[in-house]
Design a protein that fits this description.
Blueprint (H helix, E strand, L loop, with lengths): L7 E9 L2 H12 L2 E5 L3 E5 L7 E5 H4 L13 E8 L3 H13 L6 E4 L4 E7 L5 E7 L4 H11 L7 E2 L2 H9 L4 H5 L13 H4 L6
Parallel strand pairs: 1-4, 5-8
Antiparallel strand pairs: 1-5, 2-3, 3-4, 6-7, 6-9, 7-8
Helix pairs in contact: 3-5
Length: about 200
């Protein structure tokens, strides 16, 4: 089975301890606007995509850390790639699984995407995604109105979803966000930099 190629590069997510400074820099350099923001996270865009950058404020996620305490704690968290359809995303999942490449996090109702997160042999992380909403305007509206209820999303089983798609379930039926719960725990490298609750 040949892997399905993504249709475009979608976004980059950064972990930072200079959250406000980074936010201003991306707004200034790219003319980016904040699609959604809170003290811990900001999602920005400079074009018709729902977000091109996201910033994770490590001062919130790991308040006792510093820039130099652990290699990799600051910098690129992951790069996102968009697939043309949910079917393409999940058929690619099946193709990669045959080669023993499996995602470490499968998240639906990430609000605006259905996403599979992978890590390469060096630990570089990437998100393979498909948009859950039909337009960037709809995604922007969702982010403004609903994103704060669950910005991480709900985990799903790609095997089950692929079986449902192959059996004829319409993609739109799977992509509609019907619930905000349960909020998924963070996974991947990001989770390693967060101190456990006291």
């Amino acid at each position: 089975m040949v892997p399905v190629r993504p249709s475009k590069m979608a976004h980059v997510v950064y972990r930072t301890r200079r959250f406000d400074e980074m936010l201003r820099w991306y707004q200034t350099v790219f003319g980016a606007k904040v699609q959604y923001g809170n003290p811990a996270l900001a999602f920005l865009t400079f074009d018709d995509e729902h977000h091109r950058f996201a910033l994770a404020n490590m001062a919130v996620f790991q308040p006792n850390g510093s820039e130099s305490d652990r290699q990799g704690a600051i910098g690129v968290d992951h790069v996102g790639y968009t697939y043309p359809s949910l079917r393409d995303l999940l058929e690619n999942y099946a193709s990669l699984k045959e080669k023993n490449i499996i995602p470490y996090w499968c998240i639906i109702h990430h609000g605006i995407t259905a996403s599979l997160y992978y890590a390469d042999p060096d630990g570089n992380q990437m998100e393979f995604q498909v948009d859950s909403l039909s337009s960037s305007e709809e995604a922007s509206s969702f982010m403004a109105a609903m994103f704060s209820r669950n910005p991480l999303g709900v985990e799903f089983d790609p095997e089950e979803w692929l079986a449902r798609l192959r059996a004829g379930t319409p993609e739109a039926e799977l992509l509609v966000r019907k619930t905000h719960e349960p909020v998924s725990p963070l996974r991947g490298a990001f989770a390693r930099f967060i101190e456990p609750p006291q």
